[in-house]
Amino acid sequence: MSATATEPNPKVSAKLRRGRPELYTDYAADMAMLNTPGKRLWTGLLILGLLIAPFYLDRSWTSLFITVFVFAIGAIGLNLVSGYAGQVSLGHAFFIGLGAFTGTYFGGTDPNFLGLGLDMAIWLPMAGIIPAIVGWAVAPLASRVRGLYLAIVTLGLLFVGGHFFNEFRSLTGGPNLGRTAAPPVLFGVDFSAAGPLLGIEMTARQRTYFLTLVLLIVAAVIARNLTRSKVGRAFAAVRDRDIAAEVMGVPLARTKQTAFAISSFYAGICGGLISLTSGGRLDPINFAGAEGLFLSVTFLAMVLIGGPATISGSLMGAVFVVFLPRFVEAFAHYVPLIGATGLVTVPQLENILFGVFIVAFLILEPRGLFGLWLRVRNYWKAYPFSY
Amino acid sequence: MEALIESIARGLGQGSVYAMLGLGFVIVYKGTDVVNFAQPALMILGAFFVSWFTFDAGLPFFAAVPVAMVAAALLGAAIERVALRPMVGQPVFSAAMVTVGVFFALLTIATRLIGTDIRRAGDPWGLNAFVFADSIQVFQVDVAKVVTALLAFLAVGAYFKYSRSGLAIRATASDQETALAQGVKVGRMFGLSWALAGALGALAGVFIGAGGVGFEPISALIALKALPAIILGGLDSIKGALIGGLIIGVIESLSRTYQPGLAPWLGANFDQVVPYLVMLIVLMIRPYGLFGTPEIERV
Description:
Mean pLDDT of chain B: 86
Largest sheet of chain B: 2 strands, antiparallel
Number of helices of chain A: 17
Distance between the termini of chain A: 39 Å
Largest sheet of chain A: 2 strands, antiparallel
Order of helices and strands of chain B: HHHHEEHHHHHHH
Shape of chain B: globular
Oligomer: heterodimer
Helix content of chain B: 55-70%
Number of strands of chain A: 6
Structural class of chain B: mainly alpha
Number of strands of chain B: 2
CATH class of chain B: Mainly Alpha
Shape of chain A: globular
Number of helices of chain B: 11
Radius of gyration of chain B: 19 Å
Order of helices and strands of chain A: HHHHHHHHHEEEEEHHHHEHHHH
CATH architecture of chain B: Orthogonal Bundle
Distance between the termini of chain B: 55 Å
Number of domains of chain B: 1
Mean pLDDT of chain A: 84
Low-confidence stretches of chain A: 1-9
Strand content of chain B: under 5%
Strand order of the largest sheet of chain B: 1-2
């Protein structure tokens, strides 16, 4: 490495590189986030498409995309701890709830409940930092146990934490009552009201869309960079064989602790933003007991369906899980026996499909949607000699 | 004093239900290395079967229970064949997540079957109670729970100890490849483990809707409290499932009786989370529970 650092890297001419997209002349280019022209092109097109989309989509689709962006942040967090570091967590909903109520504590303006009324520039980071500290604190307990024991421990955390949310009424409003969440006012700009953003007049929904999109891109880029770093390699080593990793000098307890803390940070940010998807209200019941378990499993489904240990998979998983109900609704009347009088109602069909998709992906394509994409890509890469 | 004895009796009853569910978890875990998160759904469907055979099919209650157990056992075996068999050789985490998916699908089906009404098991015990020393009430259903659980544990213990297929299941649990080499049909043993878990789930489900209370789909979450029970007892110990279940049941019942008076600041329904708190504390002190086998890892 030092040799390439001292003398300038001899650039390969554009003529030589043509038709050889995978010709790398240095390590950095090989490990770059967008290391092929195809990736650069499609990522650019995707971001461009997402930037112009809200001006052509109707309100409900824009809202759906906002939900995707917010959930994707949480899914990336769960993927870091479960997909990359291999520590299965059913307690993700607890950290999301913790982020939601931490954000509300620092930013809440409702005089009936606790709230400091600070700007989003303060409450959103705090919504991540406090869960990260809690995650850091409970991780030693979690790192005493492994595998399936861990899943059960985190399940316990979910129920105990949910009880805490339900009973801390002066902050959370109590179960089934809830309270208004912290308003998304960033540097004095209220994203829950219509107005100009970067000189373009927008509706409240469009402004929220861009806010969450930008936050998601930042979160995804940081996560992707993290997984390419020493920390990310330590996560993978712990996942693949924790004892072997320890023998090779990866500090086991600290790596697990880091994974939990970072994952909880992402969960907290997702929680801080989750009120944007639910009309600005928060209800502790959504993060406690059965509902909390459902939320945790929803995030696990995003990771498993999207593709464990891939950031782009988390995004695909979030899109899939959030859009699934919409598609089921749209196609349900073409199928007989679905509906209020039929065998199952539409929401019930959604839940059944949800379970079936988790099972089907685990059995048929454990790499998730990302794996399906890889198959397609490899087919066309080797075309016409693919088989 | 009366309150204490009554509370302990209720706790032993509830703990017996956890113990039966825990036994189902333990059998599947020992036999196939999978934590069966679908057990709550098996329990609630078992409860529905009992209710359906009693009220809709018109069977007497004591005939409906075994029929429902057979139905739940078949369902368990079917789940294993369809969803879990392809996962053999995959990471245990993936297999556990498959059971989570199955749980969701089955729970929704149970929701549809049960509907919005609260169903009852149609048991003969109802709210009848034995009265001791003039004033101490012990509900008959709690006695029935304890007796059933003890009989179930004895039956399962005898089955594993004396029967040919029980021995085969134990052989599979101890080493799959060696068992295969000795001519044990390992796949069938997996199915049998799940069938046993299904039958035990249905047996526990009987008591979810018995004793004057009904059950609804969300009652399935009661079964998750068997997880603290088996963590306390040890994930792979049958004895642990019984003792852990009873301990968790009694602790939960005692906290329900005394926490509102002694520590009201812990909030309403605190007894619902006590099992999980106990579990977290146990794991800090003994990660493998009271009777569990410590995992020995080789690289």
